[in-house]
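Action item from last meeting closed. Structure (162 res):
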């Protein structure tokens, strides 16, 4: 009987208490790393969508086709046309987003090679980890891709681009 109450009995109880104290911390770190990985994946996918939309915009300036190309590049994010902004700016503009579409714009009637095609994709990321989602219920993500127009799509009578 005295052998069971010795040092090994206390050691097993101490290990159990230490494990109970450290387990929530380890679980929080692992779940936080999973959320971090999901966030990096979402941002990289969003950036790829903006780049793919910009690749389309530099040769085909039809906004709906540019938005469709960006949406198709990020199927896991569930983007819609409201998540993709497309605008065209003059080559010497300091504007780098589509927030002011009338500033330094490059309208279709006077669009030339060298105008800038600006494609901005944005979405919100929601963490899965309960503690992190309590602190940040949603995180706004945005990525912008800018490229010079390489080919001006004919407006009429031809309506197709290469």
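Sequence:
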């Amino acid at each position: 009987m005295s052998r069971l109450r010795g040092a090994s009995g206390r050691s097993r109880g101490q290990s159990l208490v230490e494990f109970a104290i450290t387990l929530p911390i380890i679980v929080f770190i692992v779940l936080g790393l999973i959320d971090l990985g999901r966030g990096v994946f979402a941002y990289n996918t969003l950036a790829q969508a903006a780049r793919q939309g910009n690749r389309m915009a530099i040769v085909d300036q039809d906004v709906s086709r540019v938005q469709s190309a960006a949406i198709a590049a990020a199927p896991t994010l569930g983007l819609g046309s409201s998540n993709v902004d497309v605008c065209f700016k003059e080559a010497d503009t300091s504007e780098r987003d589509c927030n002011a579409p009338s500033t330094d714009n490059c309208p279709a009637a006077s669009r030339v090679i060298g105008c800038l095609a600006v494609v901005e994709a944005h979405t919100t990321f929601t963490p899965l980890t309960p503690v992190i989602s309590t602190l940040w219920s949603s995180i706004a993500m945005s990525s912008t891709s800018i490229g010079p127009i390489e080919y001006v799509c004919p407006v009429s009578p031809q309506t197709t681009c290469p």
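Note appended to the action item: The chain has one domain: 7-148.
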